[in-house]
C-alpha cells in the first residue's frame, strides 16, 4: 500500500503530464524508476541513505533514467525540497497504476526464481489468454525462494506452478 502522499504526488504529476502532452515520456521515466527499485538494492539504499547529499541523489537518479522528462526532474526537485525523495518509488508505482487504469491496461505479475526474457514473456502472455495482449502490463518479480517454476497473478487469480509449492504439496500428501 502506498502512502497518501505518494498517491497525491502521482495524481498531480499525471494530471500535469497529461495536460502538457508528456504522459508517455513521464510514464517511461516512472517505469524506469520502478524497475530500478525492484532490481537494485543499491538504488533503494541511495534513496534511504541520509548521508548522501540531496543534489547528489538527484544527479544519481537522473543519470539512471535515459533522457528524463523535465516533469520528472521537477518532481525530483519538489521531493528533495520537501525531504520526501524516499517515496519516489511509491510515486512511480502509483503513477503506473493510474496510467494503466486510465488506459484500460490490466496488470499481471509473474514471480520467478530468475528474471525472464522476451520469449518467456510472450509465452506467459499467451498463457494468460487475453484477446488484446497490448492491454496487459506484465511485471516480473524475482524471488529465489520459489526455487523454480513460476507464479502468475492476473485478474484476481493466482496460478502457482513453483517448485516450492509442489514440494509443499508433496510434504502435505506424505504427512497425511
Structure overview:
- The chain is α+β, with helices and mostly antiparallel strands and 176 residues long.
- The chain has two domains: 4-101, N-terminal domain of the delta subunit of the F1F0-ATP synthase (Peroxidase, domain 1); 105-175, no CATH class.
- Helix content is 59%, strand content 15%.
- A four-stranded mixed beta sheet has the order 2-1-3-4.
- Strand 1, helix 7 and strand 2 (136-142) form a beta-alpha-beta unit.
- The longest helix has 17 residues, at 23-39.
- The protein is globular and about 60 Å long.
- The mean pLDDT is 88.
Q: Can you describe this structure in just a few lines?
A:
The chain is an alpha+beta fold and 176 residues long.
Summary keywords:
single chain; 176 residues; alpha+beta; Peroxidase, domain 1; 2 domains; 8 helices; 4 strands; globular
Radius of gyration: 19 Å
- The outline comes out as globular
Can you tell me the CATH architecture of the largest domain? Answer: Orthogonal Bundle
CATH superfamily caption of the largest domain: N-terminal domain of the delta subunit of the F1F0-ATP synthase
CATH class of the largest domain: Mainly Alpha
